[in-house]
Design goal:
The protein is of the alpha/beta class. It is built from 21 helices and 28 strands.
């Protein structure tokens, strides 16, 4: 059985050479590579790298969007026994410097001129970067810095090297072992400097096989590869499962055309973090707000029915004949067109992971016939710990232990994991490795969770984030934030309450959704700061919070964690300002420190607070934005009898 990525590639190329392996949309036309062509190009790419001097055990950094040569490059590097390290393509040069130094990078792959410019800037402080391979030559004709070479030139050199060294590459491939490190993925660094997670071929191939087994993934499936290649989820779905199942991956034309390309491809298998599904729902909500009254009425009626019986129909559970007929009609008029407009009309299975998804958001997609399921894992576990099986999907759990995984809950409530997907080590950090893998081989996830009677895992929050209010109630900020973010008008929320008498929140409005709403209300505004401060907008947010509080009041033990006071921030939380990670996770402690004056104002009973904040622009310049923010009391509810 093939157990490394290069071996799997050669197996597909031998068994089904003419089957489509990879597509890319360029200049509006989809180009296709067969498995035979992918194997040919990987060989030329690898031999070119060998000619440049890339050796076994060395690292090569990739900074690129989802491009064919990125994925081929991963396997080419691995075939030499070297290790690919994907970086976030939207990271600024300064952020890349740490990884370049930590991983001793001498070789780097850059998609285009923008990424080459970043690498040349990084090279001023990390002179060890000798070779920069660029994929798109536009704008680079007059660059004469040492070490620059195009992918085309590299592959030409590779073909020549291969001819001059017959059988050399094949011999190198045979030396690649399942327990060799296949990739180093750097963590997002929510609590400090990123750490390099070393995963082996065995871990990722084993994790991919488990998912293929659960969902019957096969060569006929189609996937759109659009998520950051530095994120573990993309590595699992766009590389590991691609190589194991042999389906076709499709690279969109650009980040801005993903939705159009999604509709054109009509993937049968789809993966997205909750924020993407949140964005889809927001877009649907905006369209419905602009629809004619009859369409709005029909949509609301259909959605009430879908909420009641849609998920049961999807799971094959018994549903009354009349409800089935009405649902079929709703599918014809509402649900089908909805799936089509989102590009999800051919979906057989869809997954979400990377952060907790709100039950309401989850229910919405399942109710309109999309087989959306949750996957749970971390970078350190190949994003593979729990998986939801068809017909066994619970809204508030992340499923049962995946094949090859053993789960345990520690005495302090922390989720412990053992099995195929657990990391080999942190790169050059034996101290950090020893902290997370105990003497029994269990990886300590840092998440607090509980197992139900069926073995389904329910994640409460990050263990370090779960606290208690002064009333003794358990405070799980992420749980409350996800409820708030279900509303299309709320893009981000940050809750505080640990060691406090009550829970307070910062809110970021969704500029597009609220802007659309404001225009229909004839509310003029001049940009984000102005819109966020409008009295009507504050009322709109207050209504959303009141609904969430009503929900919390009806849940066991949650009534004391209703949001008591809130404010709407004057700027969007941004990874460039270090407030979010590159995977858009909230850096809660950093935000609490940075906006300490606002936290104090919330808990100090103030009704408004002036603040001035430094911001970074995309071109590297800095500036400031200031505002006087209103602080409002939220409507809270007594605990209901359901609790």
């Amino acid at each position: 059985m093939s157990s490394t990525f290069p071996h799997l590639l050669l197996k597909h190329a031998a068994e089904r050479p003419q089957a489509p392996a990879l597509r890319e949309k360029e200049y509006g036309i989809w180009q296709t590579w067969t498995w035979e062509e992918v194997a040919r190009d990987v060989r030329a790419f690898a031999c070119g790298l060998a000619d440049l001097g890339l050796n076994k055990g060395q690292n090569l950094a990739f900074i690129s969007d989802n491009r064919p040569h990125l994925y081929m490059g991963f396997v080419a590097v691995q075939s030499l026994g070297a290790v690919p390290i994907p970086l976030y393509q939207d990271a600024v040069a300064q952020e890349m410097t740490f990884v370049m130094q930590d991983a001793d990078i001498a070789f780097a792959f850059a998609e285009n001129q923008e990424q080459v410019d970043k690498l040349l800037e990084v090279r001023e402080t990390v002179p060890g970067i000798r070779h920069i391979i660029y994929d798109d030559p536009r704008g680079l004709r007059k660059y004469d810095q040492p070490g620059l070479i195009s992918t085309e030139q590299l592959m030409e050199r590779g073909r020549a090297w291969d001819q001059a060294h017959p059988g050399a590459w094949d011999a190198l491939v045979q030396q690649v072992k399942a327990d060799d490190v296949s990739v180093i993925l750097y963590t997002s660094g929510t609590t400090g400097k990123p750490k390099g997670v070393c995963q082996t071929h065995h871990s990722f191939v084993g994790s991919a096989r488990g998912a293929v087994e659960v969902d019957g993934l096969n060569p006929a499936d189609n996937v759109i590869s659009y998520l950051p290649p530095a994120w573990v989820g993309d590595h699992l779905f766009s590389l590991a499962q691609w190589m194991v199942a042999g389906f076709t991956i499709n690279c969109p034309e650009s980040a801005s055309t993903v939705n159009i390309d999604l509709r054109e491809i009509g993937p049968s298998y789809y993966f997205a973090p909750p924020r993407v599904f949140e964005g889809m729902l927001t877009s649907v909500s905006i369209r419905m707000e602009d629809a004619a009254p009859f369409k709005q009425w029909l949509y609301n009626k259909s959605m009430q029915l879908a909420k009641r019986v849609g998920a049961d129909i999807l799971d094959g559970k018994p549903v009354g004949l009349l409800d089935r007929i009405q649902y079929k009609l709703g599918d014809l008029l509402i649900y089908g067109p909805l799936r089509n407009v989102m590009g999800l009309s051919r979906i057989r299975v869809a997954y979400t992971a990377g952060a907790a998804i709100g039950p309401d958001l989850f229910r919405f997609f399942r109710s309109i016939g999309i087989n959306l399921k949750q996957l749970y894992g971390q970078t350190e576990t190949c994003a593979y710990v729990c998986i939801q099986k068809n017909g066994q999907v619970k809204l508030n759990t992340v499923g049962q232990a995946a094949p090859g995984i053993e789960l345990k809950i520690a005495d302090n409530g922390e989720v412990l994991v053992k099995g195929v997907s657990v990391l080999k080590e942190y790169y050059k950090r034996p101290d950090a490795t020893a902290e997370v893998i105990d003497e029994n081989g269990y990886f300590h996830t840092g998440d607090a969770g509980v197992l139900d009677a069926d073995g389904h895992l329910r994640i409460i929050d990050r263990a370090k984030d779960v606290g208690k209010t002064n009333t003794g109630a358990m405070f799980a900020p992420n749980y409350i934030e996800n409820k708030l973010k279900f509303f299309p008008h709320i893009k981000e929320a940050v809750c505080f309450g640990n060691g406090r008498d009550q829970v307070c929140a910062f809110i970021n409005i969704d500029y597009e959704a609220v802007g659309n709403w404001a225009e229909r209300q004839n509310i003029p505004y001049g940009g984000y700061v102005d819109l966020a401060s409008k009295a009507k907008v504050l009322e709109l947010v207050a209504d959303c919070i009141a609904e969430v509080n009503a929900d919390l009041a009806s849940e066991a033990g949650m009534a004391d964690t209703q949001v008591a006071r809130f404010l709407v921030l004057h700027k969007e939380l941004d990874p460039d300002d270090d407030e979010l990670t590159r995977t858009r996770k909230v850096r809660r402690n950093f935000i609490a420190d940075k906006y300490g004056v606002l936290v104090d104002a919330l808990y100090g009973g103030r009704s408004e607070q002036f603040i001035e904040t430094q911001v970074k622009f995309e071109d590297g310049r800095t500036g400031s934005v200031s505002a006087t923010l209103r602080i409002l009391d939220a409507k809270t509810h007594p605990a209901t009898s359901a609790a």
